[in-house]
Amino acid sequence: MRRIGPPVIFILAFLACAPLHAAWLKGNTHTHTLESDGDSSPADTVKWYREHGYDFLVITDHDKVTRVDGGGMLMIPGEEVTDRLPKKPLHVCAIGLEEAIKPQHGATIVENLQKNVDAVRAAGAIPAINHPNFGWAFGADELLKVERATLLEIASGHPYVNMQGPPSVEEMWDKLLTAGKRIWAIGVDDSHTFKPEDKDPRPPGQAWIVVHADERSAKAILGAIERGDFYASTGVELEDYAVDAKSMTVKVHAKNDARYRIQFIGANGRVLSESAGTSATYAFRGNELYVRAKVIDSNGKCAWMQPRHLRGGKHSDVRTPGKKAWPTNAAGRSG
Ligand SMILES: [Zn+2]
Ligand SMILES: [Zn+2]
User: Fold this and answer.
1) Distance, CA 31 to ligand 2 centroid (Å)?
2) What's the gap in Å between 236 CA and the centre of ligand 1?
3) 295 and 173 belong to one structural domain
4) Is residue 330, in this structure, part of any structural domain at all?
């Protein structure tokens, strides 16, 4: 038998490890139906997202897991664990949940959030802290004391959750990152209404995430969300996003004659560099605590990439997309 030389072994090993069907998949992780306080059946809710080009959907009815067939769109089961203290709504979404969790209750905001986050984790699901400014319930001071939360909503389609603050939830996120926390930002619909005649619209299609998944499966999507391999958007679509040990590069998929600003943001939310146009590269200096990219378009729509933590000068090897992460077939998809 012919011996296989090292280069061939290397190529075979690479092929065995490389994801064959890696794709960027668009999804919403916070949705309500008639099973809680939404206005439409689970089937009609799924139909809206499927017909608007979404790849996956998490239905998060209050305190229950609603199961429905996606008809070709991936469905990931979830729940909005809906707790409260007097005048303080304290909501935590569980993404990838099999059995419903009861709100765990706690005497303080921090204890309450922590018990619910831990219950979500114990059930094997991903915890997302929802809308801190809904009812002006809590802020960065409390969030700094909550451990093990994976996600924080910083953009929402819900009209009453005060994302812009002050303080904005994006500012809270920078406070957490500056303190060294690993927490990823998501955009969600928190959609409740799908009928045009609804007098109190909380409609779908406002904010979402685009996940870099090894394959088109719930397991791959959950894995990518957990490691921060995704970006959040309210309308800006990326053509490419690459991070290596030296730099971070963003390329925008330009559309609708919009103009774009690309920011690279570091500790305390400070803008490290900003440029106009559809592509930009930031070379790490090495002393940033973290660097994250944000794109803002001339209609106020944004995309937020997850931070690259630099740990005071040492490049970490975590939670970054591959060098050439964007597949050509995703670039032209409508947002
Ligand atoms: Zn809520
Ligand atoms: Zn909700």
Assistant:
1) 6
2) 25
3) no
4) yes
Q: In sequence order, what DSSP letters do the residues of 17-80 get, joined into one string?
A: HS-TT-EEEEEES-B--TTTT-SS-HHHHHHHHHHTT-SEE----BTS------TTSEE--EEE
Same domain as 211, residue 173: yes
pLDDT at 11: 46
What is residue 333's three-state secondary structure? coil
Indicate whether 112 and 163 sit together in one domain: yes
Whether 194 and 246 share a structural domain: no
Q: Does residue 133 form part of some domain?
A: yes
Band of residue 198 on the pLDDT scale cut at 50, 70, 90: confident
User: pLDDT tens across 99-116, in order?
Assistant: 999 999 999 999 999 999
Residues composing the chain: 335
pLDDT tens string 255-312: 999 999 999 999 999 999 999 999 999 999 989 999 999 999 999 999 999 999 997 5
82 Cβ neighbours under 8 A, 6+ residues apart: 62, 63, 89, 91, 103
How many angstroms separate the alpha carbon of residue 224 from the centre of ligand 1?
A: 24
Contact 48, 19 (CB under 8 A): no
Whole-number Å distance, alpha carbon 65 to ligand 2 midpoint, is 13
Residue 301 belongs to some domain of the structure? yes
Q: Total domain count for the chain?
A: 2
Closest ligand relative to 202 C-alpha? 2
The number of the ligand nearest the C-alpha atom of 91 reads 1
Does one domain contain both 186 and 252? no
Is residue 195 domain-shared with residue 280, that is, in the same domain? no
Cα 235 to ligand 1 centre (Å): 22
* CATH number assigned to the domain comprising residue 294: 2.60.40
Closest ligand (CA of 82):
1
Q: Is the dihedral of CA 106, 107, 112, 114 positive or negative?
A: negative
CA 88 – ligand 1 centroid, Å:
11
> Which domain, by its residues, includes 302?
237-335
Question: Which ligand lies nearest the alpha carbon of 79?
Answer: 2
Which ligand has an atom closest to residue 60 CA?
A: 2
Residue 1 forms part of a structural domain: no
Query: How many Å lie between the centroid of ligand 1 and the Cα of residue 132?
Result: 9
